[in-house]
Amino acid sequence: MNAVSLLPSLTHDGPVARVWRWVPLTVLAVAAFVAAVAAATLTIDRIRDHHPGERSAEAGFARDMAVHHAQAVEMAELVRDRTDNPAVRTLAVDITLTQQAQIGRMQGWLDSWGLPMSGGRPPMAWMGMPTDGPMPGMATRQQLNELADLAGPAADRRFLQLMIDHHRAGVAMAEAVLEHTRRPEVRRLAKAMVASQTSEIAAMQDLLDATPGAGESQSGERRNRNTTSHKMKGHQ
């Protein structure tokens, strides 16, 4: 085979030429992918650089959920020292550690956004449900005092009833902020809250069903929880 016979493979009819025809398309595809990644990164950076304001859903959520979490920690610490059930104690410790860490993250957001830890608006105003009283799911001081006076299965039962209500309202709040924010850090935490607290609700219901004397008031408790959840979802 001489050099002349090789010419078709090196020109427009050969395999080399056919490979080179794909090069511009490949370059264009890579360039389009790089541009898309750069645009997405720029969008995320712009969202992060644009701090939420005083009346934003993000600020309201961080403040309200920090207060909500603080009471959950209080209830968990109360039952931790009063229960004889290892499963309830483990749950209480997990709630304490998880929600204390999440409080720290939300307070860190407010600090980085240049906002105070508390605002001038009523709780839950950011989700269209302003209230002058306790947020949904929050235990009253009387209920907390009652929990503090109990021990053993009675303490377990009251704690589980209160915390199931508390978690249901917390899930509704987290779902509400997902409808109002594009900030990646807020969305990540809210999604984690929905997942973890939904799982804990199921676990707590199982524990409650197995607690002596639990059947005495569960039907009324379930009605109250369903009413609270329905009201919150109706305002999202």
Tell me the CATH architecture of the largest domain: Up-down Bundle
Distance between the termini: 78 Å
Largest sheet: none
- The percentage helix is over 70%
CA radius of gyration:
28 Å
Estimate what percentage of residues fall within beta strands: under 5%
Mean pLDDT: 83
Number of separate domains: 2
Q: What is the fourth-level CATH superfamily of the largest domain?
A: Ferritin, core subunit, four-helix bundle
The unreliable regions are: 37-47
- Work out the helix count: 8
What is the CATH topology descriptor of the largest domain?
Ferritin
The secondary structure category is mainly alpha
CATH class of the largest domain: Mainly Alpha
Overall shape: globular
DSSP, total strands: 0
H-E order: HHHHHHHH
Task: Explain this structure.
This protein is an all-alpha fold and 236 residues long. It folds into two domains: 3-45; 54-234, Ferritin, core subunit, four-helix bundle (Ferritin, Up-down Bundle), CATH 1.20.1260. Helix content is 73%, strand content 0%. It is built from eight helices and no strands. It has helices at residues 3-10, 15-49, 57-80, 86-112, 141-148, 152-178, 184-209, 218-234. Helix 3 packs antiparallel against helix 4 and helix 6 (152-178) packs parallel to helix 8 (218-234). The longest helix is centred in the N-terminal third of the chain and has 35 residues, at 15-49. The termini are far apart. The model is unreliable at 37-47 (pLDDT under 50).
